[in-house]
Backbone:
């Protein structure tokens, strides 16, 4: 049991308070009061509760020195510290000093370190009237991590703008920059935008340390791996992966690129942003402000004799036109599109002005994908979900006892999630589909075909095993549909 002693009064220092957001403080019945070089002193209602101590260690990235107090005392301290007017006062009245302020540098480094450790893809700095929320996108979902006192905001933003080589005196225009910090092993894209409460920032961390995924490493069923591999072996044509933002589309395309790289082919990518860095592949970053749009980049790349072209996303008619032209003239083109399912990809392409004859001649396959969060097995409970979701998903009465949901525990960092599983719906464009495309008959293109199962059917199978909650199934299969 950790050494504990009672603290006379709970007056947290601002530096410490920012380490634990208010909702976590309430959840843990704990309040950070002092920040030491490598640890934080935390007043706790149950200082011997190791799960909570570990949770705070995990949250702050620091050692925890627990001190005992009563639950009522801590609640009052939380109200005082985080509540209205209770945020720490600005320690100095003058203008914010140079942002090389050591505490600010420390906070910035802590944020980056935390984000990397948790595998976050983005760090969000959202200023509010009283505090700045620091949120991470982890496994596709936004998670609150810290609340920083208001007076720290301008300094932290300045610090981040400095490392992103942005103009720190400019507060009224959105700015974009790159952060390269080899010391911390960080490479990131920074974007700031003015809001009512100050400048907000989003930092997208490049997954450079992550090796490009393999088809086997995608985690889908073996037949999906085989079918994607077969599509990648075609000498020319178009493969499109569809799904909402964060559904893993780019990862799937990179898994195909990873395999293609082992063959003597020239691979070029055009992306916005470049998400993975791969040796031996020429990767072009679209830069609209300087005029390097998808269309322009695509046109010049075609003059570079590529065999395989990865086009990050088909967003407009012109990109669609050039990409399909390339797919019909000896290139394998891989791309993504916002569409809800594999059949809708073909409909969406028609809307973008790709003629039905062109699509039918060029398309190899269309794939829809979702990343679905799976229940944490450590805190799995029977679920009684909303009637609307149950009916919409077609769950019958005697299946209800199979439903499960995880409320959250120390093991899953109180998220209820143990990870994400990819689901794929694959439509190989064969003679029959070609003929139907030419006739412009898009009704139930996938229906009844061998090897075609909707994502919904596959997710429901997991729901009936308690592996995926009804709410998550609904979110990913209905509300998470088309863009
Ligand atoms: Zn759990």
Residues:
């Amino acid at each position: 049991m950790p050494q504990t002693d009672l603290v006379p009064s709970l007056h947290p220092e601002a530096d410490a308070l920012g380490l634990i957001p208010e909702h976590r403080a309430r959840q843990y019945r704990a309040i950070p009061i002092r920040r030491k070089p490598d640890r934080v002193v935390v007043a706790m209602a149950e200082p011997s509760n190791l799960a909570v101590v570990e949770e705070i260690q995990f949250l702050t990235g620091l050692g925890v020195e627990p001190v005992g107090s009563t639950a009522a005392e801590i609640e009052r301290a939380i109200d005082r510290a985080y509540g209205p007017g209770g945020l720490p006062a600005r320690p100095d009245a003058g203008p914010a000093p140079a942002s090389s302020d050591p505490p600010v540098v420390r906070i910035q480094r802590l944020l980056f370190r935390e984000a990397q450790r948790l595998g976050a893809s983005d760090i969000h700095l959202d200023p509010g009237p009283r505090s700045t929320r620091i949120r991470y996108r982890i496994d596709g979902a936004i998670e609150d991590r810290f609340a920083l006192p208001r007076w720290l905001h301008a300094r932290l933003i300045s610090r981040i703008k400095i490392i992103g080589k942005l103009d720190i005196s400019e507060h009224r225009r959105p700015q974009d920059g790159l952060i390269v910090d080899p010391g911390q092993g960080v490479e990131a894209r920074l974007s700031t935008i003015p809001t009512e409460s100050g400048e907000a920032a989003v930092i997208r961390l490049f997954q450079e340390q992550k090796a490009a995924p393999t088809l086997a490493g995608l985690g889908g069923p073996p037949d999906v791996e085989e079918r994607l591999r077969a599509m990648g072996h075609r000498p020319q044509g178009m493969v499109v992966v569809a799904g909402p933002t964060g559904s893993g589309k780019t990862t799937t395309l990179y898994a195909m690129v990873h395999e293609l790289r082992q063959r003597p082919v020239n691979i070029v990518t055009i992306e916005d942003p470049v998400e993975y860095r791969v040796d031996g592949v020429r990767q072009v970053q679209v830069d609209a402000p300087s005029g390097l749009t998808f269309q322009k980049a695509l046109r010049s790349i075609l003059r570079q004799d590529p065999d395989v072209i990865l086009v990050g996303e088909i967003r407009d008619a012109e990109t669609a036109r050039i990409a399909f032209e390339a797919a019909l003239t000896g290139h394998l083109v891989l791309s993504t599109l916002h569409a809800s399912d594999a059949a809708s990809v073909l409909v969406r392409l028609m809307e973008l002005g790709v003629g039905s004859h062109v699509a039918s001649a060029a398309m190899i396959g269309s794939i829809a994908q979702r990343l679905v969060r799976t229940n944490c097995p450590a805190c799995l409970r029977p679920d009684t979900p909303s009637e609307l979701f149950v009916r919409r998903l077609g769950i019958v009465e005697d299946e209800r006892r199979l439903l499960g949901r995880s409320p959250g525990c120390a093991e899953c960092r109180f998220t209820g999630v143990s990870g994400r599983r990819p689901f794929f719906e694959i439509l190989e464009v064969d003679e029959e589909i070609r003929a139907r495309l030419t006739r412009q008959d898009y009704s139930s293109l996938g229906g009844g075909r061998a090897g075609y199962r909707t994502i919904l059917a596959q997710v429901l199978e997991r729901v009936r095993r308690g592996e995926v909650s009804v709410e998550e199934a609904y979110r990913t299969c209905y509300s998470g549909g088309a863009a």
In short: The CA atoms of residues 42 and 66 lie 5 Å apart. The chain has three domains: 14-82, 102-205, 216-479. Confidence is low (pLDDT under 50) at residues 1-8, 84-101. The domain at 14-82 is CATH 3.30.300.160 (GMP Synthetase; Chain A, domain 3).
